[in-house]
Amino acid sequence: MANQIPNKMRGWYLEEFGQPYVYKIDIPVPKPREDELLIKMEIAGYCHTETIVASGDYQSKLPLIPGHENVGIVASVGPKVQGFKLGDRVGCNCRECTRGYSTNFCAKAELAGLTHDGGMAEYLVADPRWTVKLPDNLSFEDAAPLMCAGSTMFNSIRNARQDKGAIIAIVGLGGLGHIGVQFAKAMGYKCVAIDIRPDPIALVSSFDPCLRPDLVLDPRDGPEHALSKILETFPGRTGVDAAVVSTDASEAFKFSTDILEKHGVLVVVGQPKEPIKFHWRVFVTQDISIVAGGLSQPDVMEEMMDLVVKEKIRSTVKVYMLEDVTQLVHDFHNPHMKGKYVIRIAT
């Protein structure tokens, strides 16, 4: 079952690691298998993961169409696909798990924009097992960042396994962190927002009161100052219950363990180039647990989107046209950037 679909499409290729993307207007439109969907792309998010892939750190096979935060409209439904129809508004990330596992930890998973062609083109092949329908009142611009940044932060906060009312620190307030602050508040936690950059700090401080952090800290003031502010803001507390580190800055991990309560939980989301180092005291005298963040499963993504709509959680986005991806990449490295950058694919 299919709409009229062109043979060629516009899009961007990563052809060589460490080199700019290459724009093309004659890319063959991909052909989905009988158990796959073809998505007409509307918006693709641009994420730090794109820079990891472009540098070669992910060891992706080239050439590759980048883009792993993908939303659009179902343009073709394979005959073995159930639960989707033409015209459905959807979001997707993983293409398939070739061993049949629905898990983040499948060694054979194919990931859009990482191990197979992603969403920085007009059409994308998607696995229905990793495709979710979007709420009617959630725009494509707001939905795209949820496919990775939002999904990761929502799942990471859940992985901290804290009771409502606990204090959760969101360390790093960039594309992921500014969404994570809103999730933490909407999920019933007290929230400490941590960053050294004034623009992201100003952004989270401007949220509606119900989604605004209870305390904002600059780690350059040191952990002792941070702990005193935590005690002042939350009387009787000597640290935070959990810290979600959504930055690649190695120093952020040590700072986070310095402000955690004993028996606290550190959730690792950031991906530093160098190994993360911890002092033995983190384990022996603090009893800190370290857990992984990571993408939500599809059922959890649906739970996340329900919360987004109910609590009016929004990503702060800047929209670029497909032809302007080179400018987006340049702007992404501006130290004053805040929120998320997304690409409008549809004309």
From TrEMBL:
Coiled-coil residues: none
Family matches, as SUPFAM superfamilies: GroES-like, NAD(P)-binding Rossmann-fold domains
Keywords: Metal-binding, Oxidoreductase, Zinc
Top-level lineage group: Eukaryota
SMART domains: PKS_ER
Cofactors: Zn(2+)
Record-level Gene Ontology MF annotations: alcohol dehydrogenase (NAD+) activity; zinc ion binding
Annotated GO CC locations: cytoplasm
InterPro entries: ADH-like_C (IPR013149), ADH-like_N (IPR013154), ADH_Zn_CS (IPR002328), ER (IPR020843), GroES-like_sf (IPR011032), NAD(P)-bd_dom_sf (IPR036291)
UniProt keyword annotation of Ribosomal protein present: no
Pfam family, one: ADH_N
Ranges of residues in domain Enoyl reductase (ER): 18-343
Assigned protein family: Belongs to the zinc-containing alcohol dehydrogenase family.
Protein name, entry field: Alcohol dehydrogenase
Originating organism: Venustampulla echinocandica
High-level lineage: Eukaryota, Fungi, Dikarya, Ascomycota, Pezizomycotina
